[in-house]
Amino acid sequence: MFSAMATVAPTASAELDPAVYDSIEAARSRASRRLRGRALASGVVLAVAYLALAGAAVHGLGSSRSPGLITAAGVIAAYALMSRVEFELRTVVALPTQLAFVPMLFLLPLGWVPLAVCLGAVVSRGLDICFRGVPADRFLLAPVYSWHAFGPVAVLALAGERGPRLSDWPLYTAAFAAQFAVDLAVSGGREWYAKGIAPHTQLPFLRWTLLADAALAPLGLLTALVAVERPIAVALVLPLVGLLAIFARERSVGIDHALELSHAYRGTAFLLGDVVEADDAYTGTHSRDVLTLVLDVCDRLGLEARDRRDAEFAALLHDVGKIRIPDEIINKPGPLDARERAVIETHTVEGERLLSLVGGILGNIGRIVRSCHENWDGTGYPDGLRGEGIPLVARIVRACDAFSAMTTDRPYRKGRSSEEALAELHRCAGADFDPRVVDALAEVIIAG
Q1: CA–CA separation, 276 vs 27, rounded Å?
Q2: How far is the C-alpha of 109 from the C-alpha of 442, rounded, in Å?
Q3: What is residue 132's DSSP assignment?
Q4: Which residues contact 354 (CB under 8 A, 6 or more apart)?
Q5: Contacts of 187 (CB under 8 A, 6+ apart)
């Protein structure tokens, strides 16, 4: 039921994939905002349609079941309680509601199940609104995120209402498939309409919720096997739900800490960039210009989120070691002599050393910073790395750094035009620069 438990987002973590944690952060932010525009309009339409179809199911599906009020209230309360346990898995949020939903299919009249699921979701949403400060209009999402109930109800109704039997596992497999298909069609369609995220692009993110539901559904069936004779058996899964709640809370805290650390690393990178700019205005401004180019080239080359994050930091900090270089060399209004050139070439090693003192992600970035003046043919410094032996991010920074330097005015020379700088990059491709990076940079400049 990914609609009830998942939020898909197109990147920031301390050590893990930054795309995952940026997606979680974006989903958390959206959950605290009011519904607007297409999200609100689609929510209203789907909520009204759901209630109408649920009412039709109540009147149209006959049943020989007559559960007591306590039983009905108990499974609805269990569903609401399980809806409160949000376990963040990659870019989605999984709920253990299968442990209550599956028994519902055998304890309640089938026609009443969609309404019961919606009522449980309403109770859960109401608690969010009362105690978490969630906007009141998110009540609309209770029926929107309950559409999954219609899939299993339809399959089981077509097969004829009957009690749970392990021998009917093919039927239950079909019911589970119908649950996911209905949810993908309705909630996936809503994501497409409201946010432009096509259903087929959502599937890779939703495998985690599918796996979570598939793992919990058999436990729900075992509970149903006992609960048809002893409805109180539904309460037996509550200790498991409590354990999941503890794990979910610990994971949420861990994600919070990872996000805080990620923001701290990014803040440190910008702070160090400001220190460089204060020490040498040209170097600081130059680093910000290189950052824009580097990120555009990363996008053009299709780098993954982790590499793109590393490129962002490396672009900001590739010259951080220059704060250890004497000002008379940094600000010399003319060409450097051999001694001065040797000193300036130590700035990559100094940059690595400074960042290693920070540690963590920035310590890893230090190794990239060290390689940002290596040449494709092995003639660069400080290690004489060659070709693919140079980190890709360092090769990108190397080319963008050179383009920015060539097109920027300095006290002792006028900057070149973009056309002249690109011609120089192409001339040196295969010697100083990675040809593939040069091509991508040229595409960025021409398109920009």
Answers
A1: 35
A2: 66
A3: S
A4: 272, 320, 321, 323, 324, 366
A5: 2, 3, 144, 145, 147
| H or E, element range at 352 | helix 347-358
The token duo for 317 is: 């900090």
* Block residue for tokens 């309950």: 146
Tokens of 145: 């995120």
* Contact yes or no for 140/50 (Cβ under 8 A): no
Tell me whether residue 379 is exposed, middle or buried, using C-beta atoms within 10 angstroms of its C-beta: 0 to 12, 13 to 18, 19 or more: exposed
* pLDDT 10s digits, 207-259: 888 888 999 999 999 999 999 999 998 898 999 999 988 988 888 787 777 66
Smallest CA-to-CA distance from 90 within 2, 31, 178, 176 is with: 2
| Bridge partners of residue 92, in order along the sequence | 89
3-class DSSP state of 87: strand
Angle at 142 between CA 214 and CA 43, to 5 degrees: 110
Query: The tokens of 8 are what?
Result: 């898909």
For the record, the structure tokens of 159 come out as 């097969």
227: Cα within 13 Å, side-chain hemisphere? 30
Is residue 390 classed as helix, strand or coil in its secondary structure? coil
Provide the 8-state DSSP code for 414: P
pTM value? Answer: 0.66
State the Cα–Cα distance between residues 431 and 377, nearest whole angstrom. 5
Q: Dig out the tokens for 132 from the structure.
A: 């978490």
Would you tell me how many other CB atoms lie within 10 Å of the CB of residue 414?
8
In 3D, which of 280, 437, 272, 301 has the Cα closest to residue 369? 272
Tell me the one-letter amino acid at 190: R
State how far the Cα of 389 lies from the Cα of 345, in Å rounded to an integer: 20
Alpha helices in 228-280 (DSSP H): 238-279
Distance of alpha carbon 345 from alpha carbon 373, whole angstroms: 9
The residues that bridge with 94 in the sheet, in sequence order, are 87
* Token digits of residue 62: 């006959």
For the segment 22-79, what is each residue's pLDDT rounded down to a tens digit? 666 666 666 556 677 888 888 899 999 999 999 999 999 888 888 989 999 999 999 9
Characterize the bridge pairing of strands 92-94 and 87-89: antiparallel
Tell me which residue of 29, 92, 14, 100 sits closest to 310, measured CA to CA.
Answer: 14
